[in-house]
Automatic annotation (TrEMBL):
InterPro entries: OMP/PagP_B-barrel. The lineage of its organism: Bacteria, Pseudomonadati, Bacteroidota, Sphingobacteriia, Sphingobacteriales. The keyword Signal applies. SUPFAM superfamilies: OMPA-like. Keywords: Signal. Residues 1-20 form the signal peptide. This is Outer membrane protein beta-barrel domain-containing protein.
């Protein structure tokens, strides 16, 4: 009987210790970052994984992919370049493929920031084109957005603003309109 009692106590002890070591994890949804990711000398790499917009000039719907990379020249101010690859579906016409490249300037506002996020403004000017056709022309963009940091180096972003291109992608002479994009950025520390 003593052996049976000892065996029950021993098994009970193992069960309690196994229960005590169970670790439950939940996905990280935010990180307190302060100014660290947007300090002078850091890099940002990422882009918009979806940019959906509607043209004012014609019945056209567009979706774009905008990879970008930038360098922080001072705290909160980044300069860089972004590419634009997209598809425009024009009502009752052939689909049009868009492309472009443009330098950008992005400024992260110090006011209104939370411990895990920052508001920013971004402006860009570059060249854009479309196929079919061989139009290459001016492209402008002025956007505002919010970066929510899910880790110390990764942020999810939402951006909205006005974009203009003189490329002849429909029956009119160009396109302009409001757009919304969702994307991500990875912030890489630079050498100090």
């Amino acid at each position: 009987m003593k052996k049976f009692t000892f065996l029950c106590l021993l098994l009970g002890g193992f069960a309690i210790s196994a229960q005590a070591q169970r670790v439950e994890t939940t996905p990280q949804t935010s990180a307190n970052v302060g100014l660290e990711p947007i300090r002078q000398g850091n890099w940002m790499v990422g882009g918009s994984i979806g940019n959906i917009g509607y043209s004012f000039e014609g019945d056209a719907f567009n979706i774009n992919l905008n990879p970008r990379a930038g360098y922080f020249v001072t705290d909160g101010l980044a300069i860089g370049a972004q590419a634009s690859l997209g598809l425009t579906a024009v009502k009752d016409e052939d689909n049009v493929y868009n492309y472009g490249i443009s330098p950008f300037v992005r400024y992260y506002f110090p006011g209104g920031a939370s411990a895990s996020g920052r508001f920013f403004g971004q402006g860009d000017i570059g060249i854009a084109g479309s196929k079919p056709g061989s139009d290459v022309s001016l492209a402008l963009g002025l956007n505002a957005g919010y970066a929510h940091f899910i880790t110390q180096t990764v942020a999810l972003e939402v951006m909205a603003g006005y974009n203009y291109s003189k490329a002849n992608i429909n029956a009119g002479g160009g396109q302009s309109g409001l757009g919304v994009s969702v994307g991500f950025q990875i912030y890489l520390p630079g050498q100090r």
